[in-house]
């Protein structure tokens, strides 16, 4: 019997989605894993160091395995590295009841807000947020699609997927063709209610609402959703929810682009994973001085674990 889970894969202090192609491939691997395990995808958000997903599945562990393995092969091949991509264990929460599912979906969709990347969920493109009540909110579907014969370039030649999956010109499976958007819309009922919840502030009221499910399960909180993600603490996330972030700062994607496309080439290395500790220190000083990037951001983008 399928159950609804919130699932998260994290890399702790390392960027595992370094550019647009990586983010696309991450979602595509999730889409293929859904099909392979007979699972139903609901919502997701892919960040640079982790990803949050909600799905109905009988086998959450198998779903994550079938997503992680092909992504790891892709990532290791692209950046000429070996070993595991991300932490060994994923974490999950079962969502039981209307309000529990609604709360888990809200936190998943607002993840970029809670990490101070964007002021509202709709401003972040690597998420399901812009695909819910899409037509009602004046966001037409992208009709610029790839022919099926070209899909393999972005998912591999042996990938299996249903005829209903569509892919846009960037090589990304169209989220509305993969996820059960109508079921998610039923959690919010109307576009106005959905918009309200995307901007609603975290409060004790959320806990009271979840208690109405009467399922004997503790309410889901932001601390539960972010368990294992070490990028920010809960107080910072709640401050970001109130708009207290500098949205002009370099994002991880910006910094990784500078490192991968400009700086690494100067060292004649195939990727950041082939830089020596001394070279990384030199680059870190340059990034701090020239771009005023934060030390923790520099460390994760340069994969400085020591």
What count of domains describes the coordinates? 2
CATH-assigned fold name of the largest domain = Alpha-Beta Plaits
Q: Element order, helices and strands? A: EHEEHEHHHHHHHHHHHH
How far apart are the first and last residues' alpha carbons, in Å?
A: 44 Å
Envelope shape: globular
Determine the mean pLDDT.
94
Strand portion: 5-15%
State Rg.
Answer: 19 Å
- Strands of the biggest beta sheet: in what spatial order? 2-3-1-4
CATH evolutionary superfamily of the largest domain: Transposase IS200-like
Blueprint (SSEs and pairs):
Blueprint: E1 3-10, H1 20-37, E2 40-46, E3 50-57, H2 60-79, E4 91-94, H3 98-109, H4 111-114, H5 152-155, H6 175-178, H7 181-188, H8 191-199, H9 204-211, H10 222-225, H11 234-241, H12 252-266, H13 277-291, H14 295-301
Antiparallel strand pairs: 1-3, 1-4, 2-3
Q: What would you note in describing this structure?
A:
With 306 residues, the protein is α+β, with helices and mostly antiparallel strands. It has two domains: 3-241, Transposase IS200-like (Alpha-Beta Plaits, 2-Layer Sandwich), CATH 3.30.70; 252-301, no CATH class. Helix content is 44%, strand content 9%. The chain has 14 helices and four strands. The protein has helices at 20-37, 60-79, 98-109, 111-114, 152-155, 175-178, 181-188, 191-199, 204-211, 222-225, 234-241, 252-266, 277-291, 295-301; strands spanning 3-10, 40-46, 50-57, 91-94. A four-stranded antiparallel beta sheet has the order 2-3-1-4, sandwiched between helices. Strand 2 (40-46) and strand 3 (50-57) form a beta hairpin. Helix 1 (20-37) packs antiparallel against helix 2 (60-79) and helix 3 (98-109) packs antiparallel against helix 9. The longest helix has 20 residues, at 60-79. It is globular, with a radius of gyration of 19 Å. 39% of the residues are buried. The mean pLDDT is 94.
């Amino acid at each position: 019997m399928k159950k609804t889970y919130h699932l998260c894969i994290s890399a702790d202090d390392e960027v595992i989605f370094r550019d647009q192609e990586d983010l696309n491939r991450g979602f595509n691997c999730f889409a293929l894993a859904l099909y392979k395990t007979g699972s139903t995808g609901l919502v997701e958000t892919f960040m640079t160091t982790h990803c949050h997903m909600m799905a109905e599945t009988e086998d959450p562990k198998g779903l994550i395995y079938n997503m992680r393995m092909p992504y790891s092969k892709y990532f290791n091949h692209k950046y000429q590295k070996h070993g595991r991509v991300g932490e060994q264990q994923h974490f999950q929460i079962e969502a039981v009841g209307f309000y529990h599912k609604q709360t888990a979906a809200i936190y998943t969709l607002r993840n970029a807000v809670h990490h101070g990347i964007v002021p509202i969920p709709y401003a972040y493109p690597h998420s399901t947020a812009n695909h819910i009540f899409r037509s009602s909110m004046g966001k037409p579907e992208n009709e610029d699609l790839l022919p099926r014969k070209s899909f393999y370039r972005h998912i591999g030649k042996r990938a299996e997927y249903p005829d209903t999956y569509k892919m846009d010109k960037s090589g990304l499976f169209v989220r509305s063709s993969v996820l059960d958007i109508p079921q998610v819309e039923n959690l919010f009922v109307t576009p106005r209610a959905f918009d309200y919840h995307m901007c609603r502030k975290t409060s004790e009221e959320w806990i009271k609402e979840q208690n109405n499910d009467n399922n004997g399960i503790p309410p889901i909180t932001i601390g539960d959703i972010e368990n294992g993600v070490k990028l920010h603490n809960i107080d910072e996330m709640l401050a970001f929810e109130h708009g207290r972030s500098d949205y002009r700062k370099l994002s991880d994607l910006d910094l990784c682009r500078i490192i991968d496309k400009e700086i690494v080439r100067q060292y004649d290395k195939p990727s950041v994973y082939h830089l020596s500790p001394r070279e990384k220190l030199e680059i870190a000083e340059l990034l701090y001085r020239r771009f005023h990037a934060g030390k923790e951001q520099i460390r994760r983008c340069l994969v400085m674990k020591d």
